[in-house]
Amino acid sequence: MKNESKPGNYRKPYTSKQPRWWWTKNPFFLRYMIREGTSVFVLIYSLLLILGLYQLKQGEAGWQQWLSLLNHPAVIAFNLLALAAALYHAATWFKLAPKIMVVRLGDWKLPEPLMVIGQWVGMILTSAILLTLTLMAGA
Q1: Distance (Å, rounded) from C-alpha 30 to C-alpha 18?
Q2: In this structure, is the dihedral angle defined by the CA atoms of residues 74, 77, 79 and 85, taken in order, positive or negative?
Q3: How far is CA 47 from CA 50, 60, 126, in A?
Q4: Quick one: which H or E segment has residue 105?
Q5: How many CB atoms lie within 10 A of CB 78?
Q6: What CA–CA distance (Å, rounded) separates 38 from 83?
Q7: Residue range 11-30, pLDDT digits in tens
Q8: Structural domain boundaries of the chain?
Q9: CA distance 61 to 59
Q10: Which residues pair with 109 in a beta bridge?
């Protein structure tokens, strides 16, 4: 026979005992969350570039309007902030990469500092080549 005197579920609802800002108390998790937060700046910067492509499609007036937007002090400040966020993200990723991907040649293992230096050199060379090509195309 069923007990029908009290309908419903009698379990207590789950309540989290972990505070919302728990990650701020541990430097490892704080750096991790900051690193993940840099993606917001990359997203907004990407949307700004997509807006530039849209304005380019609109013609000369639209393109000039977008260029004037880029000269606004707030946009310049945002671009500097986005650059700092991207460099922080790159630095933390380059530091993490040797732990994820171990490079071996036979019994020899590539030392982590060499791998990190190689990544920075590769990024700087790629940036220099792209900047040179961009300046040559504009000349």
Answers
A1: 16
A2: negative
A3: 5, 20, 23
A4: strand 104-105
A5: 15
A6: 10
A7: 888 887 888 888 899 999 99
A8: 22-87, 107-139
A9: 6
A10: 104
CA angle 56-59-61, nearest 5°? 100
In this structure, how many other beta carbons lie within 10 angstroms of the beta carbon of residue 45?
A: 17
Residue 53 is predicted with a pLDDT of 95
For residue 40, CA distances in Å to 19, 22, 43, 77, 119 come to 24, 21, 5, 15, 23
Residue 92, C-beta contacts closer than 8 angstroms, at least 6 positions apart = 31, 35
Closest listed residue to residue 30, CA positions, set 112, 78, 92: 92
Domain 22-87 has CATH 2.40.50.1070: no
Bridge pairing between strands 108-109 and 104-105: antiparallel
What the block records as the tokens of 124 is: 């700087």
Residue 65 has pLDDT above 90, yes or no: yes
